[in-house]
Amino acid sequence: MEIKTALTYDDVLLVPKMSHIKSRSDVNTSTKLSRNISLNIPIVSSNMDTVTESKMAIAMARLGGIGIIHRFCSIEYQAKEVLRVKRHQSMIIRRPYVINPENTIKELRTKIKECGYSGFLVTDNENVELLGIITKRDYTFISDENIKVKDLMTSREKLITATNEITIDGAKEIFAKHKIEKLPIVDENFHIKGLVTKKDLVENFDDKLAVKDKNGRLLVGAAVGVNGDYMDRVDALVEAEVDIIDLDIAHGHSALEIEALKIIKAKYPNLEIMAGNIATAIAAKDLIEAGADCVKVGIGAGSICTTRITTGFGVPQLSAVMDVYPICKAYNIPMIADSGIKQPGDLVKALAAGADTVMLGGQLSGTEETPGPVINYNGRQYKISRGMASLTAALSRPGAKEDISKITPEGVEARVPYRGAVKDVIGKYIGGLRSGMSYGNAMTIKDLRDCEFVRITNSGMRESNSHDNEVL
Ligand code: XMP
Fold first, then answer.
1. Lining residues, ligand 1, CB within 6 Å
2. Strand runs (DSSP E) across 198-349, as ranges?
3. pLDDT for 345-382, tens place per residue?
4. Domains and CATH numbers, the chain
């Protein structure tokens, strides 16, 4: 039996080309995530429970990429996280949070903790008729927790409102003239049609790269599996207006995944579906023919993965990407290179090998926007990252097996240095990409594919890193 050699990012380098690019800022970093979704930067945050919930997804979409909300939580929780992203920072929030006038301040504070917002429209009939608005300035210094919302709210006679026809400039004028922060949108019967907030207008203005849907709302994806109630999860995510579903299982080239893909596509033909994870050309072909709008490549290359060690299966990531690329090209379907990216150069290599985007887990895992607290250990700050097939992740899943001895982990838990804001990490990656594109004379990400790889030895790798000095 012939045994092929498979390579990964550290085994190769890209050969520099004569460049006509005058400035790194001239290159175009936009790319396709899936058949019908484009991004402004080729980075997707991983659907791991220590990486992507709404905070990360909002940050990623504002930076021009996208976040995929993980599925290791209840359906309701995941759908709420998607809604948080869709509600964030659109010109008109179509389904604003509401509260009943009979609720107490105690109940209001619980709601604030649940949803993270501080202002609510007040209505007593299922989110239809606007009765008033309650915001921070009404309740911040109220110590009697039993006072009712109706006693503190600004009632609708005193409210400034607008109708659906409001423009961005029109809203700005109203905010300036009336010194208000929230503008309810209503129809002629005072039925609630939405809400515009001053904060969203300011932030919208700053987000030059942000990726948005046709209603001006940030893009977001969410993961689902292929077992049990996965279709209920898809229904809830579609109801929350998710932009792309990530049909994500460890071994995506499986009859179960292909069946689930067909079932979801049959019910929602226009819903974009990312399918994975895979590591071969034949897997890509099978998933694309079953309806996938993009394929996700990567088995066991992740920073917290032990699949290859536990099962003996996997393909080093660069070879997997190169093997899948001709199929993606033939079908005109984008590819995500998921896992194994340790530095910006790996991103450039993945794109040159044929990926359209990369998915980052470990590299984003210590940032401020990930779920979970910053912990102090030996005087340094860390956050926790864990494989979704690690022991603790398996134990914390809804309906987990109680008997630890029956769990065979394919991932680990890890401590990662606290890295601050995700925009700084992404900035480093996009800086490296822009520089790499200029070395490869690539004005677009697709142009990178004309670059040539050379295989390097261990001494080549040693030479590539800083050497023969003491790094400060
Ligand atoms: P990086 O290298 O960016 O990779 O941290 C993140 C990707 O790793 C995958 N993943 C796992 N793979 N066991 C695995 O074999 C696991 O427990 C596990 N958890 C996550 C996943 O594809 C993710 O995007």
1. 46, 48, 277, 298, 300, 302-305, 307, 338-341, 359-363, 387-390, 410-411
2. 221-224, 244-248, 272-278, 294-297, 335-338
3. 999 999 999 999 999 999 999 999 999 999 999 899 99
4. 9-89+209-464 (3.20.20.70), 98-206 (3.10.580.10)
